[in-house]
Structure formats: C-alpha cells, structure tokens
Design a protein that fits this description.
The structure is a homodimer of 395-residue chains.
Chain A: H1 16-23, E1 30-31, H2 44-62, H3 72-86, E2 95-99, H4 100-112, E3 118-123, H5 127-134, E4 139-146, E5 149-150, H6 152-161, E6 165-170, H7 184-197, E7 200-204, E8 229-234, E9 245-249, H8 252-266, H9 271-283, H10 286-311, E10 317-318, E11 326-330, H11 337-346, E12 349-350, E13 352-353, E14 366-370, H12 376-393
Parallel strand pairs in A: 1-12, 3-4, 3-6, 6-7, 7-8
Antiparallel strand pairs in A: 2-9, 4-5, 8-9, 10-11, 11-14, 13-14
C-alpha cells in the first residue's frame, strides 16, 4: 500500500486492551482485562417489549434520520437525572447524545485541541481517552494522584507553568483504571482552578451511578459557575453498551459547538436506540435495575478484594474502589506486569498491564483488574492463579 | 463562555441543510430539501420480527460490546454484495462497519489529511463531505464535471500541478447533488490516474443500488489493482437510516488503519443494529425490498422531471438522474437561488440552494431537489410553486 497517511496516524496505535480482549475471547480464559458489564444484567425481556412498543407507536420515525443533538425526551431525562444526582442545573439543550462516551471524548478533542496543545490528566488515566486526544496531536502532562484524586497543589503549579494547556481530563468517580474517587474538597478546588485559569475541564463519568457504599458526591460541574466543565455520561454501564448511547453535557453555547462537530463526524446516533432507551425509562424502573447491577458488582468487588488479600503477596498495594468496575494493583517496582501477563495467559487468566494507562510511560509494575464481568467463582480462581504467578516472580 | 476552541472549529459551521430541515419540519411544508428516504418503505413488520429473533437467540451478545470492525457475518454479506454488484474482490477483512457513511468520510479524513493538504472533488460535491474533510484543515480543488463525471483532462492537469494532493473524493453513481453518473471510461481513467499519481480515491456510493433504469456499472474500485481506492456503502438508503449502519471497504492494511482510527473515535457501531441487519438479510428478501424502493422513487423522479418540464421556464437546465434521490437545477446566472428559497418558504416549499455544494464558492444560481421523500401529489404541487417563484424572478 503506497497511500501516504496523515501524521496523526503514527501517534495512535491499536488499543492494547482490545488486542488482549481478542486473545481472551476463548471461553476457558478468565478475563479481568475488559471493562465489560455483566451481560446477565441486561434487561432483555424489557427490551423486547419496548422495541415492539416503539416500532408499533412510531416505527417510521424511529427508523428515519433525526436531529444531531438527539431525541428530546431522552435529553430531558438525562438533564433531570444529572440535576438530581450530580447537582447540575441543566435542561435538554445542555445535552447532546453521543455514540458512546468515547465519542464525547473524541469530540471534546475536536473542539478544543490544536496540534501541540497540552491536556492535563490524572496519572494514570483512561487508556482510550489517551487514544482519542492523541489523534489531535496534543501532549499530555500527568498530574500525580492519591486515593482522593489529583494532588491540587501539583495541578496548580502545572497550570502556572505551561502556556498551551487546553483542558484538564478527569474521572472523579471510581476512576478507570484505579477505582479511586475524588473527595469533595478536590472537586471544589478543581472547579475553582478551571475558572481562575480559564481552562476547560472534561469530567468523564461513566461509572458514577455504580456506587456500592458511601454517599454520592456532587460533580465537579456542580461547582462550576462559568461553564468551564464539560460532563460525559453513558447508558453503557447502567443499561447496555451495545446501544452506544451516551452524552456530553455543558454550557449551551458549547453544546451547540459539539452539535456542529458531530454533524461532520457522523450526523447523529441510532434513532431507534435513542427512542427505545427513552421508552424504557418511561415504562420500566431503571433505579431498581441499577440497584440490581450494584448488588452483583458489590459482591464481585468484595470477592476480588478478599481474594487479592488471600492470594497475592502481603506487601502488594491495591485500591479499595467504592464503586465502578475496576481495581488497581501496584507490584514491587522490579516486576514488569507485562511479563506477569505473559505467564498468566499460559494459565488462562488475563488483565491489562498498567503501563498502558500512563501516556508518558512508566507504571510497568501496575495492573488493572476488572471485577464486573466474571462470576465470583471465576474471580476467586483467576486471582488465585495471578497470585501464584506473582509469588513466583518475587525476589 | 471563555473556553478557547481549536482553530478547526472556525473552519466548520452548522450544516445548511440540517438548519433548513428544521424550518421544514412543519407538516404543511413541501420539502425537497433533505435526503430522507421514504419512510413508507421501512420494513417495520419485518424489523419487529427480526428484533425478537435476535434478542431471543443472542440477546446477551447483541446488547454487549463487540469488535471495532463489526459483526463478521454482516461484513461477509457486504463483501459478497460488493463483489457481485461492483466487481470488487473483497472478503470480510476488507470491510469495517461505520456509524453511517458520514463516519466513513470523517475517518477517511482522519487517516489521510494533514493540515494544508489538498483534496480534489467534483464541482459541485456532497455538502457533508466538505464539512467532514474541512475539519482536518484541508483545501479543496474542484474539478469541473459534466453529465458523465469529472473531466479527466482537468483532473490530470491538477494532479500534475499540485504537490499536496492527498485524495480524490467522488460519488460516481447518482451523485449528490447533481444526480449524474460517471460513465465506464471515466471510472477506468480515474483508477488509472490514482495509481499513476499514487493518490487515494474515496469512492462514496450511498445510492448505487437505487438504479431506476440502465445497467449497473462496475465501481472505480474494480479497476484498482493496487489498493488506492477506498469505497463506502450504506444501509441507510436500502433499509433504514435510523440504524446508522454503513461501511468502508478497501485494502486490508488500510482497513486495519481505519479500525485503529475508529477505536479512538467511538469504539464500535451499535451491536444490536449490526446483528438485526445481518438477521434481516438472512431471513428476508432484500432484493425484493430494494425493487420496491426503486419502483417508488422511479415514479417520483418521473413526476418531478415531468413537473419541472411543465412548470419551470423552458430555458432552465436540469439533470436527468438514472437513480438515487436528487435532481439538480441551473437557473439563469443572474438569479440567486437563496433568494428564490426565501420566497419559496413563504409558499411553504423548500429545497437546498446549490451554493452549499461548492467548497470554494459559486453556484449561486443552482439548486438541489430531493424526490424520494414526498408523494407524487406533493411533488407536482411543490414544483409548481417553485416554478411560479422562478418565473416571477426572470428578467
């Protein structure tokens, strides 16, 4: 092939997770690698019923083109939900639907990033966000984090130091990959710094509804009086990922720009999917449904953390996620988790090596474990196998 | 809002068509503005049945994440269809599913275009392709066309003259906006020039299946021995646009790059939609379905061309589309079709002024008429009203 590709294509590469996922498609592999919801939670019977209702009542409309911003009743529901849960003050014009949260990230890059611009992120941060933003030729500066979020002093020093910072990307609730949650003070501080330095914040929130214990915290957005915070949310983790319905929310003028950007990208999301989700929310009890998901994941999280305590060496540090899908493990620094993975794959168990989550390198001794997609029995067995491999690698 | 946007956002603006479409949502407006399929062709009952089958047989899979390239049985069907219809030699690995053809265009830009690169296109060309490519900071050079496609001599001179040409964008079948179709010789010549100058061709083909008369022509791709031609196709016009399932096809190595680009953009298309279309193709007779669409559109095209002959001034030039959704009208050069539109909207009839289809300006005396979405009765009445307005504007 002699076609000359754009420079950006040398900046981005195939997602490591999606490549590992291909290996782990074999049914005998216990995989903690993906971020897949438990398929047994999908409300298949409700969806069957809802689909017939939507096609019966408004089939021609559900199969036709629609607006770029998306189906108004669904956007209204999302605005209300965010106002109740996250302390925002939105109406439907603050919301645009996206093809998964991933598109909200990609379009944020399209809106904000020129080549050479800087994006600040947690260290580590979500792998696919790195891919999305990197396509726009940006640089990343990783801000150190602890169990309560970004270190605000470090963030401020960085904001003072660099000229070309265009956005701060964060996942304050049950972060991917660490599972950690920002405390209230840091959320307030971030909103306040964004306003002082006039920098956009992308508050990515795919897991916020999946809290297993403790109180819901207000969003960073709820402290933003001037429109610097862009929020994302998704039905992938509380309903079904196959629908690819998520959203971006923010200042109305900014959402108008998102609409223009999305028009050029793919016109609109699947109309039928939008109307089915809206109908589901009207006819079914999503809170009861989410409670069921939380219950299952809470047990799996408990099983995973208990198994780590039991089967991993005692001096290994791991996170204590209060929700979400992931736990994070730090091995002794002389161990490379890619080598651990190679050995684990021989034992038919998989995870994602943590290095993938550090845009500027490092983290070779870390790994991410997903607990939502495997049975408790498999979690115990899989963690046991990984534990054996790590024990064997200890000096 | 004080957020500083990326430079590219000043290059792109809201789609003129989608803005006009908002005006024309009033049910009393006869609109030839959109490119909407006739909703009465949507196979709603089949889709109801198919949905239940897919959810019954493989609900967990249909609602879960899937691969970026898309559902293999659907990609296999597409490859076979293209091989039969368009003279290609594809298998499933030559195909990646996209969220509408629009995404295939956007990702082509992502793959190919650096800022300042040049893209060659027909004059006029598809409005939303201009928006998609322009976001990557490219320049357009319009190649003059006649009723049989691009003028190949002009194309070659341009290829010889400019350094930074990265792609040639064409719609050889029932072009949007003109409705014209490239003849065989020009298809061969384009493939040959692409190979000689090592330039990618984006062969956009959303309407090819909708031929009302005459023989199907082999694609430009069928003459491409070295992988320079990227093809797009879609289920939007032969099934339903609401599903947002389309595809990009080409050299396997290039499709691998498209997969990497799509991973960062939105991970994947709606899983359920992919599986439903595959099941529809397995259980229903899509050829009979397409024949039904062709029959309806053929009648509407005839009605529109007859009405233009009858109600428009005699010296006005208009295209004779052998398929697709659009006809193209050239008014005397002293008439601005935007002013005609303003007057027509008062008469509750709409179209798209042609200037929008010329990336570098011009075409103020042209307009695009869609014939797929209005009843024959409305077509007669609408063309009559536009005819009155044009007559009144004649000097």
């Amino acid at each position: 092939m002699n076609i000359k590709l754009a420079k950006r294509m040398s900046n981005i590469k195939a997602s490591e997770i999606r490549e590992i996922l291909k290996i782990t498609e074999r049914p005998d592999v216990i995989s903690f690698a993906g971020g897949l919801p438990a398929p047994e939670t999908f409300p298949i019977d409700d969806i069957k019923r809802i689909n017939q209702l939507v096609l019966q009542e408004s089939g021609s409309r559900a199969l036709q083109y629609t607006t770029t911003e998306g189906y108004a009743p669904l956007r209204k529901w999302i605005a209300n939900r965010m106002n109740c849960r996250l302390g925002t003050q939105f109406d439907e014009d603050n919301i645009m639907l996206t093809n998964g949260s991933q598109q909200a990230l990609d379009l944020s890059g399209k809106l904000l990033l020129d080549e050479g611009d800087i994006i600040l992120c947690e260290s580590p941060t979500y792998l696919a966000a790195i891919t999305a933003f990197r396509a726009y030729g940006c640089q990343f500066i990783e801000i150190p984090t602890d169990d309560n979020g970004m270190l605000i002093d470090e963030l401020e020093i960085t904001l003072q130091t660099y000229d070309r910072i265009k956005a701060i990307y964060v996942i304050p609730d049950f972060q991917n990959p660490t599972g950690n949650t920002w405390n209230l003070e840091r959320r307030q501080a971030l909103a306040s710094l964004a306003s002082r330095y006039q920098i956009a914040v992308i508050e990515d929130n795919p897991y916020g509804e999946l809290r297993f214990e403790g109180a819901f915290l207000p969003s960073v957005k709820s402290f933003d009086k001037e429109g610097y915070v862009i929020c994302t949310g998704t039905f992938s983790k509380i309903f079904c990922p196959g629908y690819r319905i998520a959203w971006v929310a923010g200042d109305k003028e900014l959402i108008r720009q998102f609409v223009i950007a999305k028009q050029g990208t793919d016109l609109q999301c699947n109309t039928l999917a939008q109307m089915e989700i809206a109908k589901y929310l009207e006819c079914c009890d999503i809170d009861a449904h989410i409670e069921k998901i939380r219950e299952i994941y809470r047990h799996r999280r408990n099983t995973m953390l208990d198994s780590i305590k039991r089967y991993f060496p005692t001096n290994i540090r791991f996170s204590q996620p209060e929700g979400g899908l992931f736990a994070w493990v730090e091995l002794p620094t002389y161990i490379d988790s890619r080598q651990i993975l190679t050995m684990c794959l021989k034992e038919n168990v998989a995870f994602v090596p943590g290095a993938a989550f550090f845009p500027n390198g490092g983290g070779h001794n870390t790994l991410r474990l997903n607990f939502s997609n495997m049975s408790e029995e498999n979690i115990i067995e899989g963690i046991k196998r990984i534990g054996h491999v790590i024990h064997a690698a200890l000096k």
